[in-house]
Specification:
heterotrimer, A mainly alpha (about 300), B mainly alpha (about 300), C alpha/beta (about 250), A: about 300 residues, mainly alpha, MetI-like fold, globular, B: mainly alpha, about 75% helix, phosphate transport (chain C), ABC_transporter-like_CS (chain C), AAA+_ATPase (chain C), phosphate transmembrane transporter activity (chain C), transport (chain C)
């Protein structure tokens, strides 16, 4: 085989492989949406699941997922911002900083099931919070924090040095420089990254099995007192999320329409993640345009 | 507080802590430092708790560490209970290795496609595809694996469709984005002169890729593959849904098997804390954790070589 | 105000092992413009940046020697850098306005230093913009983004921003090298105006500019101060051969 033929063959093979990947994604999305969309209705999205009868919905699970996401972000964002700022602005280059960076890297590659086990032991049992949204949010924080730190650190590193120096030269403290000059410039990148991270949190299940639990109490959507045990807003009640629900009905679902429910729930999950993805993209482009526009 | 700050400035007090900017600086430093401490404390706590629980199997329950690592029989509720975790270890290694073997060529080809063959339009089109693949939650992969891949394998091959191959296929798709994005970054960072020199000598594009591009980026490509394997090794639910969960070493790719993660997922909820069975599951988690460290170590070594 | 100059004694700056500035002693008088000239990499920018301890923000830089402003040694580790930098304004090569409105760019510093009164701030903004010869161009759009200004306007805004906090000394690091000739001459006029009140130190590559704007000139070469004198004398009759070679364009 001469060089020209080899070149052609290789090009075809590479394009073919790239094509396969595109087909896999299209097939995946097509399958989920095709199987799932027909099952999605207002009733499906709002009603409670049934254990053995057909016709159950995913209302509480959907609510739990969203509520858990909010709780997680409330804990993660301040922590992640602080740690990221420390890494990019205060940490002096050297051995200590390098080992902290290694810690972040290791933490981000821990299997989520191990994070879940840790949550079970420490948050659920030792701290006595029990299977609850709050335990789940803490576990997801462990899972999400390294990502937030990296997002913040990179966004802060992307701020032009002249901006920082201009502020320092005016006689502003470093902290004021960080919060008033650098953070606003880094914000678009941080927000884009956070939205993507939120998508990851929304779909996570393994870390939640043993922390937020695999069941929900019968929620009373008329009771909005966060202290009442049946209130949807009570952060100390167990909560099965959408992703956990999909896993559960696939492995032990008894309802005759378990397959359809799983498909419908998967479609909802994927659509939400797509929404986060496009949201992040759109926001990134919007901010880019806003900042580069001449007027 | 505010009042004293203003006063401190007006009277230009020598006391350093009265100066608002010094106090402010302090608040910032303490706040960010506490955040980083939380991060470090978290990882130390994870290592400590998983290790102490995982090691108690050997210390409290008297299981031999060698027996656990090499034993073939897992019968935690039997009389006497037997904890041989080799089937799980085997399952984890075989699924993640196989997944990497499937995903690596695909991912590298996608990266070459995006950087060398169609750097403009191809990349604009492929990049979102890869990002979306990365964004799909693992339970959804498990669900699709269960409803598409398993029946398909059952129709073509002997057996029930569940098993190592089904798990590997699902994992391969899941780790594809990791491998592809790292490979793409590495290929895109290659200095243009390197390629042009080769083209100028009359080499074809494939010869250039094969002789120049791939060898120079090899450490980075391997980094991607190792990170992909690490992700596959730690993935729990998607694998658990399609692998069958039988606690023994399968004789073929199409026979029910188990991984470390699937064993933990299935049994942790049904055991009582402090029992030998429960502790044994923590030992499995400890193996997972150790492997994570090994993967990170390998990645570090590869990166160091890459920078040289 | 403005009766303060700076005195530098035996200043050395090290980047790791490399000595970028070698035992430089130099003083800057009030109401005068001092130009620092020399070929690229001669240490003049590093020297300038050490005058307000801006090199602290880069890791691995060590500075020795003394820098006196009034009775304060800038290089004393116990000095409050934040307060110090308020007294020493700085202007960079590329205009770097904050990503804020024109008004905010100016008001940001004074407000931080304790001026909360809106009327007072308005006055400072107008006064600073007038001194920077930017008021007429911007008075109708004070609340538009500063990034919408042209490069030359942005640079004058940066100068206005630095004088808004009432510094004693203004450091300029090639303030006109990224600008077109018209903007450059506006900046030069502005420097001539500002020197009536401030002590100005300007780094420049452009010998004609040094000759036009400065009263005194210091020539740096390979990290050393070769010679310093009145600008007229430096450009007509320098005492050192290296200075002569550089000024007549034989290298650099």
């Amino acid at each position: 085989m001469n060089a020209k033929t080899a070149d052609k063959v290789a090009t075809v093979v590479i394009c073919l492989f790239a094509g396969i990947i595109v087909l896999v994604l299209l097939g995946l999305l097509g399958f989920i949406l095709f199987r799932g969309l027909s099952h999605i209705s207002w009733d499906f999205l709002t009603s409670a699941p049934e254990t053995i009868k057909a016709g159950g919905g995913i209302g509480p699970q959907l609510f739990n997922s969203l509520f858990l996401l909010v709780l997680t972000m409330l804990i993660t964002i301040p922590l992640g911002l602080g740690a990221g700022i420390y890494m990019s602005q205060y940490a002096k280059p050297g051995k200590v900083t390098n080992s902290i960076r290694l810690v972040v890297e290791v933490l981000s590659s821990f299997p989520s099931i191990v994070v879940g086990l840790f949550g079970l032991l420490v948050f659920v049992n030792i701290m006595g919070i029990g299977f609850s949204l709050f335990s789940g949010a803490l576990a997801l924080t462990v899972f999400n924090l390294p990502l937030m730190v990296r997002i913040t650190e990179q966004a802060m590193a992307g701020v032009p040095r002249e901006q920082k120096e201009a502020s320092l030269a005016l006689g502003l403290s470093r902290w004021k420089t960080i919060t008033s000059v650098m953070l606003p410039i880094a914000m678009p990148a941080i927000i884009t990254g956070t939205i993507l991270a939120a998508g990851r949190v929304f779909g996570e299940a393994a870390a939640l099995l043993f922390t937020a639990g695999m069941s929900s109490p019968r929620l009373d959507f008329t009771d909005w007192n966060p202290l009442s045990p049946f209130s949807p807003l009570n952060p100390f009640r167990p909560a099965e999320t959408l992703a956990v629900h999909i896993w559960k009905i696939n492995s032990e679902g008894l309802a005759p329409d378990a397959g359809e429910i799983a498909a419908g729930a998967s479609a909802v999950l994927v659509l939400t993640v797509l929404l986060f993805n496009f949201g992040a993209r759109w926001f990134g482009r919007f901010m880019h345009r806003k900042f580069t526009a001449t007027r | 507080m505010e009042q004293s700050a203003v006063k401190g400035q007006k009277t230009n007090s020598k006391s350093a802590f009265m100066k608002p900017h010094i106090r402010e600086e302090w608040v910032g430093r303490v706040y960010t430092f506490v955040c980083i401490l939380v991060l470090i404390a978290t990882i130390l706590a994870i290592v400590y708790f998983v290790a102490s629980k995982g090691l108690s199997t050997f210390i409290t329950n008297g299981v031999n560490i060698g027996d656990l690592l090499t034993g073939l029989k897992w019968d935690p509720e039997g009389e006497p209970a037997v904890f041989g975790a080799l089937p799980f270890i085997f399952g984890s290694f075989s699924t993640s290795l196989l997944a990497a073997l499937i995903a690596a060529p695909l991912g590298c080809c996608a990266a070459i496609f995006m950087t060398q063959i169609m750097p403009g339009a191809g990349r604009r089109f492929m990049q979102p595809v890869i990002e979306l693949l990365a964004g799909i939650p693992s339970v959804v992969y498990g669900f699709v694996g269960l409803s598409v891949i398993v029946p398909m394998l059952r129709a073509i091959f002997p057996g029930q469709g569940i098993g190592i191959l089904a798990g590997s296929l699902v994992l391969a798709v899941m780790i594809l984005p990791t491998i592809t994005s790292i490979a793409t970054d590495a290929l895109a960072a290659l200095p243009g002169g390197l390629k042009e020199g080769s083209f100028a000598l009359g080499a074809t594009r494939w010869q250039t890729i094969y002789r120049i591009v791939l060898p120079t980026t090899l450490p980075a490509l391997l980094t991607g593959v190792v990170l992909g394997m690490a992700r596959a090794f730690g993935e729990a639910l998607a694998v658990q849904m399609v692998i069958g969960n039988a606690p023994h070493i399968p004789r073929s790719l199409f026979e029910s098997a188990s991984t470390l993660t699937s064993a933990i997922t299935l049994s942790m909820g049904n055991t009582i804390s402090g029992t030998a069975h429960n502790n044994a599951l923590w030992s499995l988690a400890l193996i997972l954790l150790t492997m994570t460290f090994i993967f990170v170590f390998i990645v570090r070594v590869l990166e160091r070589r890459n920078h040289r | 105000m403005a009766t303060t100059g700076m005195k530098v004694k035996d200043l050395s700056v090290f980047y790791g092992e490399k000595e970028a500035v070698k035992k430089v002693s130099l003083s800057f008088s009030p109401k005068q413009v001092t130009a620092l000239i020399g070929p690229s990499g001669c240490g003049k920018s590093t020297f300038l940046r050490s005058l307000n301890r801006m090199n602290d923000t880069i890791g691995g830089v060590k500075t020795t020697g003394e820098i006196w402003i009034d009775d304060v040694n800038v290089n004393d580790p116990s000095v409050d850098v934040v307060e110090l930098r308020q007294q020493i304004g700085m202007v960079w090569q590329r205009p770097n306005p904050f990503h804020k409105s024109i008004y905010e760019n100016i008001a940001f510093g004074p407000r931080y230093h304790g001026i909360k009164n809106k009327k007072k701030l308005d006055e400072i903004v107008e006064d600073s913009l007038r001194r920077a010869a930017l008021w007429n161009e911007t008075k109708d759009r004070l609340h538009n983004s500063a990034l919408a200004l042209s490069g030359g306007q942005q640079q004058r805004l940066c100068i206005a921003r630095s004088i808004a906090v009432k510094p004693k000394v203004i450091l300029m690091d090639e303030p006109a090298s990224a600008l077109d000739p018209v903007s450059t001459s506006k900046i030069e006029e502005l420097i001539a105006e500002l020197k009536k009140e401030y002590c100005i130190v300007i780094v420049t590559h452009n010998m004609q500019q040094a000759a036009r704007v400065s009263d005194r000139t210091a020539f740096f070469y390979m990290g050393k101060l070769i010679e310093t004198d009145d600008t007229d004398k430096m450009f007509t009759n320098p005492s050192e051969k290296e200075t002569d070679d550089y000024i007549s364009g034989r290298f650099g």
